[in-house]
Model the fold of this input.
Amino acid sequence: MLQVNNLTYRKIIKKISFKIEKKSCVSVIGKNGSGKSTLLKCIAGIFRDYEGKIEIDGKDLKTLSMREIASLVSYVPQLIEKRIELKVREFLELSLFPYSVKLKNEEIKEKVVATADMLGIEGLLERRVCNLSGGEVQKVLISGAVLQGADFILLDEPTSHLDIFRKKEILDFVLNLKGQGKTLVFVSHNLEEIRELSDRVLVLSEGEIVREIEKTDIDILFEKAFQEFVYA
Amino acid sequence: MRSFSVRFVFFILALAVFIGAVFYFPERFTFPLSETEVFILKSIRIPLFLAAFFVGGSLSISGLVFQTVFDNPLATPYTLGVASGASLGVVVYTVFISKVLPVPIIFVSLAGGLLSVMVIFFIAKAVKFYSSNTILLAGVALNFFFGSLILFFQYFANQYNTFEIYRWLLGGIKPEKYLPVLILAFVSLIVLFGLVALSKKLDLFLLGDTIAKTKGLDVEKYRIVFITVVSLLTALCVSIAGPIAFVGIIVPHMVTRIFDGLHKSRLVYSFLLGGISLVVCQALSLKILYPSILPIGVITAIIGTPVFIYILILKNR
Done:
């Protein structure tokens, strides 16, 4: 279980508390600048100077090393911040860094090929990340997150800069993960996407959770909240 | 297996270049060697070319690490002001201390290099930001500041000291003693093996800070570790050879372009290619104005500048 208590980060996130059960999919929605990505980055251990407590399976993130956090939670960024000239195979091998002490080189290679086969990106393995299309990059990033072996996968607007065909591909890709029992926390602005994936929706406004919508109420309350807090 | 064979061939090539330089430069030795030639070989040529090889190798792996952890292709072992700090140490020693308290130059140079690293981390701590840009900009500022201080102290030096400082700043390897060369060889090999052991961490820097963190790398901590280690190695090189430009920036670029593979390979190839490059430059510096010796720093700058501009053009195409 992921438990966030009184999380405060600078003036962006203000005393947020919530729980996420394993094997569920929770979407986080809100206007630009409402703190969605910052929330995900705190949970992923990218920002560590927050106040409050984040626990995964009862372990306080602040007491864990980056390697330990990476084995519990993986994060897929909205965009990659630099040109990655590595081959996809090399990128995926590095995704196993949290376990690199325990695994032999052959085991790492086998795991990479098996995951690439499972997620249908085996054809990309020898291509360089910087030469891939936006949709392919997202698939590789998500595959890397899966390889990390963490139960919690955080996805920061994975389809925001893709055309509708690629969006559908990535959505199927994410649904596949959900089917495998991964716990997903998903930031998105796309109404249909959120409706299809989410068991619960957290609505964020100015750094605070202003509404929580359960699956049973999604159809009734969701559009209202979307109009009120996302498009307002 | 293939990469092991390539590394082995490369190692043999480096050895061949080294032996060739030792026996052919500045003048060819013929067999059987006379007693004088054996003496020259033992006490001048071997320590001279050994020093060139290890300085070149060390500066190259330092450059590779700097370019990786700063994510900046123009970062060099001298970017953080480490070389100018080490040079400042030598200048202050030459002008003020040498006559009162004679100590090996290696200590004052290391102290100067260490001072640079400490000042940079102090600045980064003061602004509470250990990002690559903060450290890089602090280093550039410090580089200028130390450069100005060197000029300041040089202005007060007497004629003899001014000339000595000037020659030292041009960069040049003096084959006086084996001990500093052996210390450099030992330290550079330890650093090389240490970096190879930590090569996966260096690889993760290639993904950018955010992704590297999510894959489990403590980016800020390891950036400091890597910078400190290679800065000290650079200061050690400066104490032996003065500030030698361009090897640390060009060789890592060549290695990245020529050879496949990540840091495990890149480090080994950079070390060998950097070593070979400086041995060749050293041989040229002995030959061009023979019987005079041209400072090796002049040769590396003359060859390095056009190669550097070529890399810039190639990268922006």
Q: What stands out?
A: The interface with chain B takes residues 41, 44-46, 65-71, 74-75, 77, 80-82, 84-86, 90-91, 94-95, 97-98, 100, 141, 144-145, 148 of chain A (CB under 8 Å).
